């Protein structure tokens, strides 16, 4: 299929927003004093994280091109609908398929709005945030620190360091944003959201029984899609692993309980039971957890072999990104970079 023959999927984003807002669950009950302090802390720690990440990652990035926003769940959902609708524009005609798909996307975003601690929104509209925007979801951060039983100040700074690392990645190397946007559009253009699996996910889950299923299974099995998914998987693994490594390298000198936070957070990542685990599997979030681990392993190997500045070569261009094979065997990437020095 040529690019001229591709058509973007029909999506009714107003339905997605309305459905999502209706389904968003309220956050933890916190009195006004504690809520105000949590918001103030996150703005303060987001600013503090800038220097910590710059010194730890050894990457210089502008500080005024991607604003920080501390948001609640509904605001996070609205931001993502705004960004996704720019990435995948609405069809000129409203159809039943568009309504149904929009409602399903809204339901997915409502569920995610209760899980995401922070996000660098790289697809934010240019007129709103030309360099992207950093979103910190305050009710989820408060809920997580309560659930984990960790020091709130340490945990809030730890989260901010992770998300600031993503802000630095995309503002220091703007090509990354265009690279991921282009690849996301390729997949979207090759995907038929009118296919039966997209219209009745519950039926598809029941017919697949105990087999592993994610939304990736609903994408067409073509060479274009497979190669695109492989490239996106590799780059996202590096980005997530790099952020995890940086947040841990900041270390107990700054975040006293970083070891405890990491141990408890990893247990929390893995320990979701029942329906929550099913939804996470459907959305491919177990794939995302693997990205954190594979990417972190890759980054640690590179740092141990060629140092932090050697690892930073990964962000120079699409050609210096690891392939999926190199991600799983970092020595191959290190060898290739040595041959091109």
What distinguishing features does this structure have?
single chain, 341 residues, mainly alpha, Lysin, disordered N terminus
Tell me what the structure shows.
One of its GO terms (molecular function) is metallopeptidase activity. The chain has 341 residues and is mainly alpha-helical. The chain has a single domain (8-190, 210-339), classed as Up-down Bundle (Lysin), CATH 1.20.150. Helix content is 65%, strand content 4%. It is built from 15 helices and 3 strands. It has helices at 13-23, 32-57, 73-87, 96-112, 138-148, 152-172, 175-189, 196-199, 201-208, 223-250, 258-270, 274-282, 285-311, 324-328, 330-339, and strands at residues 68-71, 118-121, 133-137. Strands 1-3-2 form a 3-stranded mixed sheet, with helices on both faces. Helix 3 (73-87) packs across helix 4, helix 6 (152-172) packs across helix 10 (223-250) and helix 7 (175-189) packs antiparallel against helix 10. The longest helix is centred in the C-terminal third of the chain and has 28 residues, at 223-250. The chain is globular. The two termini are 38 Å apart.
């Amino acid at each position: 299929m040529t690019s001229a023959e591709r058509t973007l999927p029909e999506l009714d984003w107003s339905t997605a927003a309305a459905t999502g807002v209706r389904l968003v669950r309220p956050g933890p009950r916190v009195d006004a004093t504690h809520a105000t302090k949590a918001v103030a802390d996150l703005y303060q720690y987001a600013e503090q994280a800038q220097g910590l990440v710059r010194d730890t990652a050894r990457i210089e990035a502008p500080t005024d091109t991607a604003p920080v926003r501390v948001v609640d769940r509904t605001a996070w959902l609205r931001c993502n609908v705004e960004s996704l609708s720019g990435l995948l524009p609405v069809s000129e005609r409203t159809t039943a398929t568009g309504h149904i798909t929009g409602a399903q996307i809204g339901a997915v975003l409502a569920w995610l709005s209760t899980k995401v601690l922070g996000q660098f929104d790289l697809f934010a509209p240019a007129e709103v945030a030309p360099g992207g925007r950093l979103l910190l979801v305050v009710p989820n951060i408060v809920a997580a620190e309560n659930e984990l039983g960790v020091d709130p100040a340490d945990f809030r700074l730890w989260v901010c360091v992770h998300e600031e690392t993503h802000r630095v990645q995309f503002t220091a190397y703007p090509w990354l944003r265009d690279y991921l946007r282009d690849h996301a559009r390729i997949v979207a253009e090759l995907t038929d959201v009118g296919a039966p699996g997209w219209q009745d996910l519950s039926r598809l889950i029941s017919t697949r029984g105990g087999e592993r299923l994610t939304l990736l299974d609903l994408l067409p099995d073509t060479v274009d899609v497979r190669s695109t998914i492989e490239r996106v998987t590799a780059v996202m693994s590096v980005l997530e692993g790099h952020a995890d490594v940086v947040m841990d390298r900041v270390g107990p000198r700054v975040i006293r309980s970083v070891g405890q936070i990491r141990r408890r957070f990893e247990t929390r990542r893995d320990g979701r039971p029942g329906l929550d685990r099913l939804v996470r599997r459907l959305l491919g979030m177990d794939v995302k957890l693997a990205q954190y681990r594979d990417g972190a392993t890759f980054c640690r190997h590179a740092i141990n072999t060629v140092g932090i500045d050697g690892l930073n070569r990964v962000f120079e261009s699409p050609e210096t990104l690891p392939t999926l094979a190199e991600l799983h065997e970092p020595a191959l990437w290190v060898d290739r970079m040595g041959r091109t020095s």
